[in-house]
């Protein structure tokens, strides 16, 4: 390894040049001229190497400096070492920046780095989607020119960042902004899409409001009749009517509480072991007898069942989904409606459950909301029939745990179809050829 350039090395180099000139001058005379020529040669050599260095710095595109001799060899070697260190440090810095950007892109939040005046000098991909920024086109732009919201401008101007700012950006998207000063005169702006949180909060408020409303009516009825029975003598007929109504309202509250508990239990567990062997034909045979009694001859009910189509899944949830769909069809369709309930295997080997009726149907604007909790198409009719608006919500969540989806289609005054399909992997046994039997 070469040692660094010192005065001793330069002095030794000067002596090596002047010593031959001194000997030649002593031998041939003209000592001063030989010394001058030797010094001029040394100066020319240094000038030549200096020009080579200048050419390499400003013209030559090679990464390594030119090779040298003597004192210039040490200088060129030192430049080469320094350049290697710089390249290594630049590589490490690039890797560090790359890891930082990769980590910033993986964050669930939009990040914008800006000066205290709002001038943007970096943002991640999520910021481009949430805030509508463009990179690198928006480099050097002021964020106030891109996010034109008076609340945001006031938030930056007041500089009270102890609390976040929530704005409604395009298409009812709620975005929460947090600003954290860092370094000197720099801001880290963090934005997060909180639309789902706002929807959940709204759903929670609606849920408690609906539960309170659903319980208030039967409790008011019970309280009114109890006060009548306590304050005055009642005739046997009125007493019988009061007891019947109180029993009906208490049954309604009991049904509501049971459905709420069922829905809560289904939603509480994100997944279930689908290992129960469910004899759906037997379940449907039991339901057939029950709905015949419930209908009391008001409907034409037909069951089409593959008696060997057995599936695996969560027994409680699948039974709940099937019974809710069947009971809904009988309860919420008018007298004289034909109801067809089928449990058959598809050509692809899946198990398909269908409930079809030819009743008045459901308008298109209601179909997408039918599985919302407490949603009713006709609230007055639902209360008359004792509906709570929770049945289809239970069906939706129960089927989601079986990787299935409730499909609803309706043609008013022609037919309404509620159906779901279980994947072939959940089918345990079935006839090789579907054996469908129609029963009334």
TrEMBL record:
<keyword id="KW-0067">ATP-binding</keyword>
<dbReference type="InterPro" id="IPR021766">
    <property type="entry name" value="PhoR_N"/>
</dbReference>
<dbReference type="GO" id="GO:0006817">
    <property type="term" value="P:phosphate ion transport"/>
</dbReference>
<dbReference type="InterPro" id="IPR035965">
    <property type="entry name" value="PAS-like_dom_sf"/>
</dbReference>
<dbReference type="GO" id="GO:0006355">
    <property type="term" value="P:regulation of DNA-templated transcription"/>
</dbReference>
<keyword id="KW-0547">Nucleotide-binding</keyword>
<feature type="domain" description="Histidine kinase">
    <location>
        <begin position="210"/>
        <end position="426"/>
    </location>
</feature>
<keyword id="KW-0418">Kinase</keyword>
<keyword id="KW-0592">Phosphate transport</keyword>
<dbReference type="GO" id="GO:0016036">
    <property type="term" value="P:cellular response to phosphate starvation"/>
</dbReference>
<keyword id="KW-0812">Transmembrane</keyword>
<dbReference type="Pfam" id="PF11808">
    <property type="entry name" value="PhoR"/>
</dbReference>
<feature type="transmembrane region" description="Helical">
    <location>
        <begin position="12"/>
        <end position="45"/>
    </location>
</feature>
<dbReference type="InterPro" id="IPR014310">
    <property type="entry name" value="Sig_transdc_His_kinase_PhoR"/>
</dbReference>
<dbReference type="GO" id="GO:0005524">
    <property type="term" value="F:ATP binding"/>
</dbReference>
<dbReference type="InterPro" id="IPR004358">
    <property type="entry name" value="Sig_transdc_His_kin-like_C"/>
</dbReference>
<keyword id="KW-0597">Phosphoprotein</keyword>
<dbReference type="InterPro" id="IPR003661">
    <property type="entry name" value="HisK_dim/P_dom"/>
</dbReference>
<keyword id="KW-0808">Transferase</keyword>
<dbReference type="Pfam" id="PF00512">
    <property type="entry name" value="HisKA"/>
</dbReference>
<keyword id="KW-0997">Cell inner membrane</keyword>
<dbReference type="InterPro" id="IPR036890">
    <property type="entry name" value="HATPase_C_sf"/>
</dbReference>
<dbReference type="InterPro" id="IPR000014">
    <property type="entry name" value="PAS"/>
</dbReference>
<dbReference type="Pfam" id="PF02518">
    <property type="entry name" value="HATPase_c"/>
</dbReference>
<keyword id="KW-0902">Two-component regulatory system</keyword>
<dbReference type="InterPro" id="IPR005467">
    <property type="entry name" value="His_kinase_dom"/>
</dbReference>
<keyword id="KW-1133">Transmembrane helix</keyword>
<keyword id="KW-1003">Cell membrane</keyword>
<dbReference type="InterPro" id="IPR003594">
    <property type="entry name" value="HATPase_dom"/>
</dbReference>
<keyword id="KW-0813">Transport</keyword>
<dbReference type="InterPro" id="IPR036097">
    <property type="entry name" value="HisK_dim/P_sf"/>
</dbReference>
<dbReference type="GO" id="GO:0005886">
    <property type="term" value="C:plasma membrane"/>
</dbReference>
<feature type="domain" description="PAS">
    <location>
        <begin position="96"/>
        <end position="172"/>
    </location>
</feature>
<comment type="function">
    <text>Member of the two-component regulatory system PhoR/PhoB involved in the phosphate regulon genes expression. PhoR may function as a membrane-associated protein kinase that phosphorylates PhoB in response to environmental signals.</text>
</comment>
<dbReference type="InterPro" id="IPR050351">
    <property type="entry name" value="BphY/WalK/GraS-like"/>
</dbReference>
<dbReference type="InterPro" id="IPR013767">
    <property type="entry name" value="PAS_fold"/>
</dbReference>
<dbReference type="GO" id="GO:0004721">
    <property type="term" value="F:phosphoprotein phosphatase activity"/>
</dbReference>
<keyword id="KW-0472">Membrane</keyword>
<protein>
    <recommendedName>
        <fullName>Phosphate regulon sensor protein PhoR</fullName>
        <ecNumber>2.7.13.3</ecNumber>
    </recommendedName>
</protein>
<dbReference type="GO" id="GO:0000155">
    <property type="term" value="F:phosphorelay sensor kinase activity"/>
</dbReference>
<dbReference type="Pfam" id="PF00989">
    <property type="entry name" value="PAS"/>
</dbReference>
């Amino acid at each position: 390894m070469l040692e660094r350039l010192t005065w001793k090395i330069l002095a030794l180099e000067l002596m090596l040049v002047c010593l031959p000139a001194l000997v030649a001058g002593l031998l041939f005379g003209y000592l001063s001229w030989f010394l001058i020529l030797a010094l001029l040669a040394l100066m020319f050599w240094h000038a030549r190497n200096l020009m080579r260095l200048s050419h390499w710095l400003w013209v030559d595109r090679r990464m390594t400096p030119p090779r040298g001799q003597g004192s210039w060899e040490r200088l060129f070697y030192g430049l080469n070492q320094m350049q290697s260190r710089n390249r290594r440090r630049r590589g490490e810095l690039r890797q560090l920046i790359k890891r930082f950007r990769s980590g910033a892109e993986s964050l669930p939040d939009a990040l914008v780095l800006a000066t205290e005046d709002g001038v943007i000098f970096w943002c991640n991909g999520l910021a481009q989607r949430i805030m509508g920024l463009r990179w690198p086109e928006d480099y050097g732009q002021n964020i106030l020119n891109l996010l034109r919201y008076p609340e945001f401008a006031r938030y930056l101007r007041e500089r009270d960042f102890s609390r976040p700012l929530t704005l409604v950006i395009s298409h009812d998207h709620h975005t929460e902004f947090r600003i954290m000063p860092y370094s000197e005169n720099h801001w880290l702006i963090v934005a997060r899409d909180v639309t789902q949180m706002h929807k959940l909060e709204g759903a929670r408020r609606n849920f408690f409001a609906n539960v309170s409303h659903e319980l208030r009516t039967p409790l008011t009825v019970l309280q009114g009749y109890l006060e009548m029975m306590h304050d005055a003598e009642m005739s046997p007929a009125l007493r019988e009517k009061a007891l019947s109504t109180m029993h009906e309202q208490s049954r309604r509250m009991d049904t509501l509480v049971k459905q709420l508990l069922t829905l809560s239990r289904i939603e509480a567990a994100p997944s279930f072991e689908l290992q129960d062997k469910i004899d759906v034909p037997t379940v449907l045979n039991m339901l057939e007898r029950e709905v015949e009694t419930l209908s009391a001859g008001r409907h034409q009910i037909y069951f089409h069942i593959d008696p060997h189509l057995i599936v695996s899944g969560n027994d409680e949830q699948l039974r709940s989904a099937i019974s809710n769909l069947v009971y809904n069809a009988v309860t919420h369709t008018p007298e004289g409606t034909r109801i067809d309930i089928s449990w058959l295997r598809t050509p692809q080997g899946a198990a398909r459950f269908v409930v079809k009726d030819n009743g008045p149907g459901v308008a298109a604007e209601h179909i997408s909301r039918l599985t919302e909790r407490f949603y009713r198409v006709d609230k007055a009719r639902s209360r008359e029939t004792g509906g709570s608006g929770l049945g289809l919500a239970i069906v939706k969540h129960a089927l989601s745990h079986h990787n299935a989806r409730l499909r609803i289609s309706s043609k008013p005054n022609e037919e309404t179809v509620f159906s779901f399909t279980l994947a072939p992997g959940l089918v345990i046994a079935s006839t090789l050829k579907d054996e469908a039997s129609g029963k009334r």
